[in-house]
Design a protein that fits this description.
The structure holds 3 protein chains of 3 kinds. In chain A, helix 9 packs parallel to helix 11 (about 280-300). Chain A folds into 2 domains: about 1-80; about 140-310, no CATH class. Chain A has helices at about 1-25, 30-50, 50-80, 95-115, 125-130, 140-150, 150-170, 185-210, 220-235, 245-270, 280-300; strands at about 240, 305-310. By secondary structure, chain A is mainly α. Chain C is about 90% helix and about 0% strand. The radius of gyration of chain C is 17 Å and the shape is elongated. Classes of the chains: A mainly alpha, B mainly alpha, C mainly alpha. Chains in contact: A-B, A-C. The interface of A and C includes residues 183, 188, 189 and 196 of A.
């Protein structure tokens, strides 16, 4: 009891301290790096709260992919205007501190009040847990995501696709290569890639399969695959194209198509909309989701409509 | 006791995010602050859905998992808009605020 | 407490010591290269000791292999990122003086 409480207190203090450093730190670059550290500490907090699915998602997406996106954007801004690198962009508003404290107190009061409520006997979560056997997966989070709250997951894929399309729409036509082509590449990088990229695919597929009965699932797997894509485009193995190739267009909408297609098919087959006919269907939808999560994230990082191998 | 600790932490992180959102001039900093606010909310949701010593309620877990992906999507879109804004105007701050800043004599 | 637990607790403590030493080096050393030196060397040993301790506690081949994989990946990532940071730092210095 004692020692675990100490760990919780340290994690909580670490989160708050890092958050303060992120918003009030003098250097923008440092703030971004500390934000990534914040995400990793948050992943530890999820693990402490018995939510390993969230811990993996936070580490892979919240810290990893978001951090890569932030750093890439920072680099592009510096490239566009190197003189402004030193500016801190920290304003001074007398209102900021009192408003921040007040909202913090408000959220704290809401949370404290909610903790005083007696725990309900039949929450949606307990119902979902009880009905888990019917779904064919034993990881309750995967069950909820795909079976009980399928609409959320479907719309989430829509949001991700919209974000990609929106980013394409606002991007200027000028092509931008994120790779460092003018600098010779150290020999170690190729060796690392030849090991790590196959491993990301392996880990992605493992996470997808494990998601049925253990922590994991399409989102974590997709994020790991996207990380492989990020590595490849960062080292110039994958270069941006001006248009999205047909295959990649199909891949972008594959998750939405398979999930909604399956849902509609079940509707016409006399079952409920978006219900899935068995475990095989869950894994099929999850595979499609994984691929359709990985590609837009990698493309968003590369800030390109499409990617192709360097040799082509 | 664990729940109280994390509720306090989530409130503090959320408040810090609001503070940073108001304070920041650079859009990248505002996005960091927004993501911190999101983190605070996620932590609150999971803590309140937690069992005594078992895994937390799967429904908030699924919602937070969805939320994490939505957050990265929105951030990526915002970053793309920021890059375009910077290309067009050479500034990474919102115009209104710059006037505000000069009006306040902060330079 | 069994002998196994005592040994693994000792290994964990030793691993934590190496992590602590590496972090103090990162914070206290003056320049990029000595900081990298402290961080990568000490942390790799620390990670190895922690993984070894957990292997002893895990008592299964599967866990042992997974931990071995984690350690090797950690080594690989530390090596390459250390190399890249050091290279970048040398290039930047060369650019300034020349």
């Amino acid at each position: 009891m004692g020692i675990s409480l100490v760990i919780d207190v340290l994690l909580a203090l670490g989160l708050v301290g890092l958050a303060l450093q992120v918003v009030a730190g003098p250097s923008l670059f440092r703030s971004i790096v500390l934000f990534v550290v914040f995400g990793l500490v948050m992943a530890l907090a999820w693990a402490r709260l018995h939510a390993p699915d969230l811990a993996m998602a936070e580490a892979a997406i919240g810290a990893g992919i978001t951090g890569a996106l932030l750093l890439m954007t920072y680099r592009r801004l510096v490239e566009l205007n190197p003189e402004k690198r030193g500016e801190t962009y920290l304003g001074s508003r007398w209102l900021a501190a009192p408003v921040g404290v007040l909202t913090g107190v408000l959220v704290g009061l809401i949370g404290w009040a909610a903790l005083q409520l007696p725990p309900g006997d039949t929450t949606a979560g307990t119902l979902a847990r009880d009905a888990l056997d019917e779904t064919g997966v034993s990881n309750p989070v995967t069950g909820v995501l795909l079976v009980f709250r399928g609409y959320d997951t479907l719309l989430e894929m829509g949001v991700l696709l919209l974000a990609f399309l929106g980013a394409r729409a606002v991007a200027s036509g000028r092509a931008h290569s994120p790779g460092t082509s003018e600098v010779s590449e150290p020999a170690l990088v190729g060796a690392l890639l030849s090991l790590v990229v196959p491993l990301t695919i392996l880990v992605g597929i493992y996470l997808l399969r494990a998601g049925g009965h253990a922590p994991g699932g399409a989102f974590q797997a997709g994020a790991v695959l996207a990380a492989g894509g990020v590595l490849l485009s960062l080292t110039g193995r994958l270069v941006p194209t001006d248009h999205t190739p047909l295959v990649q267009r199909l891949v972008l909408v594959l998750g939405l198509l398979v999930f909604s297609g399956m849902g509609l098919f079940m509707l016409f087959a006399g079952s409920a909309m978006l219900s899935l006919p068995g475990t095989w269907a869950i894994y099929l939808v999850e595979t499609a989701l994984m691929i359709s999560i990985a590609l837009p994230l990698a493309l968003l990082f590369a800030q390109a409509p499409g990617l192709k191998g360097r040799g082509h | 006791m664990q729940a109280e600790i994390y509720v306090a932490a989530s409130a503090a992180v959320f408040g810090t995010g609001v503070y940073g959102l108001i304070l920041a001039r650079h859009i990248l900093r505002k996005l960091l602050a927004l993501n911190l606010m999101g983190g605070g909310v996620f932590l609150l949701l999971i803590t309140l859905g937690g069992g005594a010593d078992g895994p937390p309620d799967p429904i908030p877990q699924a919602m937070v998992l969805t939320g994490i992906v939505i957050a990265v999507s929105a951030t990526a879109f915002a970053l793309a808009m920021l890059v375009r804004l910077y290309q067009e105007t050479g500034r990474a701050t919102l115009e209104l605020e710059d006037d505000d800043q000069e009006g306040g004599g902060d330079g | 407490m069994s002998v196994l637990e005592i040994v693994s607790t000792g290994l964990l403590a030793a691993g934590c010591f190496f992590y602590l030493a590496g972090t103090i080096g990162l914070l206290r050393f003056p320049d990029v290269h000595s900081r990298l030196h402290a961080l990568t060397k000490a942390d790799n040993v620390g990670l190895f000791l922690v993984c070894l301790a957990l292997t002893l506690l895990g008592e299964s081949l599967r866990v042992a292999l997974l931990l071995l994989l984690i350690w090797l990946l950690g080594l690989l990532a530390a090596t390459v990122s250390c190399h890249l940071i050091a290279r970048h730092s040398i290039r930047r210095k060369g650019g300034r003086s020349g």
